[in-house]
């Protein structure tokens, strides 16, 4: 029995204002202060598209090797939930901004196909005084309502929890390298839902996975749960399930929705998004090195896989390393000092940056190396 996993990843974009209004994005603000008639869905308020969000979404599409749609549509996704003030979410449906891409896993080289990457707005945030399963009331903060998101949907090409985590970690790195998102899962800047099934059986959607560790635990439990049901002669119920961090189990939330349940229809307040050849070309040209590009450069220096991944995973250290090589071109000596002595002190003292320059560091390493 083979597990089949597809991931839906929502990433918050690093824009200063919301998707369809001019409300600022500041998650340190008091609840319900960064709101306006547009993001609250008040009668007569009309949306206005954030161009920077479109540019960021285009960069994501390019980086994931997607086909870019010159014309895409915004749809209303209708459902009722307390954190959705309008009663619908502005999203994209049958004609997304980007589609049919792929991501290469760095360790195995496996290609995970991407169905689509589309723009949408975030919902508000429900704050539960206790665990969601046990709480009998919740607070709602609409500061997050209308924040720009890109949803990245993979094909069900993932076959294990470890593979899912590897995919997520690489996707997060790409987003950080692009500069379009912080990729911080704990802060909600990167959120993941998983569609999990055993080959030939109905699938379940698993929500509330807020870290790479949570994703691995949730998928391991859900795969084991479904396999147990099948082995005992039962049938898996297609539903949405909530992962409980405290006990590592998933719990039934509601029946699994299909597209028709949301009654998608084109948003009458937003015209089609028509892209020029110039903006498509410019956003592609603005993309710098991506993680795999850096890996290729570092592997030329005969570094270990661990050393390569440590540098790729920390943009500050990676840049510091390459700047140091300009002063003392000894890749192994620089990496040995930087990734053992220096990184050890950084971790011990909680430093994000070093109090000396790459030039000073490389000069010191050269002095030690050459006696």
Structure description:
- The longest helix is centred in the middle third of the chain and has 20 residues, at 212-231.
- Helices cover 33% and strands 23% of the residues.
- The model has no long low-confidence stretch (mean pLDDT 94).
- It has helices at 51-63, 161-178, 212-231, 277-285, 291-299, 305-312, 315-327, 331-349, 358-370, and strands at 3-12, 67-68, 71-72, 75-78, 88-91, 98-104, 111-121, 125-127, 139-141, 148-154, 190-198, 204-209, 239-244, 249-255, 265-266, 273-274.
- It has two domains: 3-284, no CATH class; 289-370, no CATH class.
- It has nine helices and 16 strands.
- Helix 1 (51-63) crosses helix 4 (277-285) and helix 7 (315-327) crosses helix 8 (331-349).
- It is an alpha+beta fold.
- The strands form four sheets. Strands 2-6-7-10-1-11-12-13-14 form a nine-stranded mixed sheet. Strands 5-4-15 form a three-stranded antiparallel sheet, with no helix packed on it. A two-stranded antiparallel ribbon has the order 3-16.
- The relative contact order is 0.14.
């Amino acid at each position: 029995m083979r597990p089949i996993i597809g991931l839906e990843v929502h990433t918050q974009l690093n824009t200063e204002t919301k998707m369809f209004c001019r409300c600022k994005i500041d998650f340190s603000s008091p609840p319900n202060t960064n709101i306006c008639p547009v993001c609250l869905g008040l009668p007569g308020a009309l949306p206005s598209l954030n161009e920077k969000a479109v540019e960021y979404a285009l960069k994501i599409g390019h980086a994931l090797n997607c086909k870019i749609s010159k014309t895409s549509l915004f749809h209303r996704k209708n459902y009722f939930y307390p954190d959705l003030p309008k009663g619908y979410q502005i999203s994209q449906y049958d004609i997304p901004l980007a589609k049919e891409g792929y991501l290469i896993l760095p360790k195995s080289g496996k290609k995970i196909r991407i169905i689509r990457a589309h723009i949408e707005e975030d919902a508000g945030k429900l704050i539960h005084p206790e665990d969601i399963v046990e709480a009998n009331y919740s607070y709602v903060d609409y500061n997050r309502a209308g924040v720009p998101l890109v949803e990245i949907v993979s094909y069900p090409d993932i076959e294990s929890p470890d593979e899912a985590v590897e995919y997520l970690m690489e996707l997060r790195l790409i987003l950080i390298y692009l500069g379009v998102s912080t990729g911080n899962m704990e802060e909600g800047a990167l959120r993941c839902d998983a569609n999990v099934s055993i080959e030939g059986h109905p699938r379940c959607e698993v929500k509330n996975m807020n870290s790479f560790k949570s994703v691995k635990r949730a998928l391991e439990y859900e795969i084991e749960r479904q396999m147990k049901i099948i082995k005992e002669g039962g049938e898996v119920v297609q539903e949405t399930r909530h992962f409980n961090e405290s006990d590592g189990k998933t719990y039934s939330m509601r029946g699994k929705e299909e597209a028709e349940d949301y009654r998608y229809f084109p948003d009458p307040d937003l015209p089609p998004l028509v892209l020029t050849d110039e903006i498509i070309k410019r956003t592609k040209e603005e993309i710098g090195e991506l993680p795999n590009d850096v890996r290729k450069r570092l592997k030329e220096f005969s570094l270990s896989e661990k050393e390569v991944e440590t540098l790729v995973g920390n943009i500050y250290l990676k840049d510091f390393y390459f700047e140091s090589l300009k002063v003392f071109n000894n890749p192994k000596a620089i990496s040995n000092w930087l990734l053992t002595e220096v990184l050890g002190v950084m971790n011990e003292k909680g430093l994000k940056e070093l109090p000396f320059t790459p030039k000073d560091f490389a000069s010191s390493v050269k002095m030690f190396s050459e006696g």
